[in-house]
Amino acid sequence: MQWETVIGLEIHTQLATQSKIFSAAPTAFGAEPNTQACAIDLGLPGVLPVLNAEVVRLAVRFGTAIGAEIAPRSVFARKNYFYPDLPKGYQISQYELPIVGRGQVEIVLDDGSVKTIGVTRAHLEEDAGKSLHDDSLLGGGYTGVDLNRAGTPLLEIVSEPDMRSPEEAVAYARKIHQLVRYIGISDGNMQEGSFRVDANVSVRPLGSDTFGTRTEIKNVNSFRFLERAIAFEVERQIDLLEDGGSVVQETRLYDAANDETRSMRTKEEANDYRYFPDPDLLPVEIESAFIERVAAELPELPDAKRARFRDAFGLSEYDANLLAGSRALADYFEVVARTSGEPKLAANWVSGELMAALNKAGLEIDASPVSAEGLAGLIARIKDGTISGKIAKQVFEAMWQGEDDADQVIEQKGLKQITDTGAIESMIDEIIAANSAQVEQYRAGKDKVFGFFVGQVMKASAGKANPQQVNTILKDKLKP
Ligand code: ADP
Ligand code: MG
């Protein structure tokens, strides 16, 4: 049987605020355990939560960026459960009335096709604390609780079950990641837990119009693991169903070391949580003027940038998407494209040579040793024929090592392309004279020998002879 995969993602992104969602305690990462939790985060009696206004602004910023309806009135609810890292016994979240309603984003797949993915809702909530299973604690056998994270503001972004492959799920997760960083509502740091993805996965016979039973995979902290976790889970479900079994709705954990998912607990239903409106917090009421103001402050968004790169610069959807990947990269590319006046060459160089060098050195674009102006200068020299594309790689290498001016490098290293016809002709004459056997072979019809001659000329000129001229002159002189 042919199976179809169905995936919906729930993404928790930490909002970039100085203080917590309902208290003034700091949110900075990496502090000593339990030094950044106050009485409100701990849920001590006699204290009241106060909503951080900045959190509302950031949520609205996200909502307007995905074209979503912003709720004029949203409500905080208590989600009740018992866990050591949740001293209040409930988490403050939004349930029936979330702040952000239905919106959508576009993803670009590897083949350049574009697909729209629905966002069902996005709601505000507080994070819980963290249990530390560390054997060095008190000599071992204990679990510690660090409440620094308790009360950290999260925006939970829930997608429609619109994705049909691990690749699409990763593209969507990357898209949300890109977006929250573009609009500056989160640093998106996955190692520090600022961006966490839960994947809901099911399969169904291809062509079926009802969904299969889903499982939810938690604890996925990289895009690579997300892809592998979903791929594993899809296989597992198909095997189960083909063996006559059925999928149990449950929460599963991805174990990266063994590349498998394991059952964690059976799925709880919403009514297990006994949600009810939090009596300590007023509903959030948002005026349309506020929404308009926040929308007006948005920067150019990734989709708009991609479309502009595609249309204004004639780039493929894939390249445009790649170069619009982050604001810093897009800004860099745009300077190279405009300064050099050669957007396609600029796209090739930025997405090829430059990105490879950055990846190899583990650097972000902001730390590139070759500036955008420097790279534009190099491209200008390719365009005006001063150097060939091949020599340009040598120049780039030297620029990467520290000399940012392409003209300086070309001058110092004597890399200027040889375009003087007379000079190329005399080099070719010498080579022809010294290789009469190969000349015979070529004239006898062995076309392959032509490459040998090109190689000899390039060697003699240290790669500097203009390749087109070499070709033309060689053809001419080798004619029987
Ligand atoms: P819950 O309240 O139990 O978390 P939701 O209905 O809010 O469930 O859905 C949570 C996520 O699961 C959403 O992203 C949704 O798109 C996804 N989802 C729902 N049904 C399925 C399914 N059958 N297969 C895959 N994903 C699903
Ligand atoms: Mg859920």
Automatic annotation (TrEMBL):
Pfam families: GatB_N, GatB_Yqey. It comes from the Bacteria. The keyword Transcription regulation does not apply. It catalyses: L-glutamyl-tRNA(Gln) + L-glutamine + ATP + H2O = L-glutaminyl-tRNA(Gln) + L-glutamate + ADP + phosphate + H(+); L-aspartyl-tRNA(Asn) + L-glutamine + ATP + H2O = L-asparaginyl-tRNA(Asn) + L-glutamate + ADP + phosphate + 2 H(+). One of its GO terms (molecular function) is glutaminyl-tRNA synthase (glutamine-hydrolyzing) activity. Keywords: ATP-binding, Ligase, Nucleotide-binding, Protein biosynthesis, Transferase. SMART domains: GatB_Yqey. InterPro entries: Asn/Gln-tRNA_amidoTrfase_suB/E, Asn/Gln-tRNA_Trfase_suB/E_cat, Asn/Gln_amidotransferase, Asn/Gln_tRNA_amidoTrase-B-like, GatB, GatB_C_1, GatB_Yqey_C_2, Gln-tRNA_amidoTrfase_suB_CS. One of its GO terms (biological process) is translation. Its EC number is 6.3.5.-. Residues 331-478 form the Asn/Gln amidotransferase domain. Belongs to the GatB/GatE family. GatB subfamily. Heterotrimer of A, B and C subunits. Allows the formation of correctly charged Asn-tRNA(Asn) or Gln-tRNA(Gln) through the transamidation of misacylated Asp-tRNA(Asn) or Glu-tRNA(Gln) in organisms which lack either or both of asparaginyl-tRNA or glutaminyl-tRNA synthetases. The reaction takes place in the presence of glutamine and ATP through an activated phospho-Asp-tRNA(Asn) or phospho-Glu-tRNA(Gln). NCBIfam families: gatB (TIGR00133), PRK05477.1-2 (NF004012), PRK05477.1-4 (NF004014), PRK05477.1-5 (NF004015). This is Aspartyl/glutamyl-tRNA(Asn/Gln) amidotransferase subunit B. It comes from Marichromatium purpuratum 984. The lineage of its organism: Bacteria, Pseudomonadati, Pseudomonadota, Gammaproteobacteria, Chromatiales.
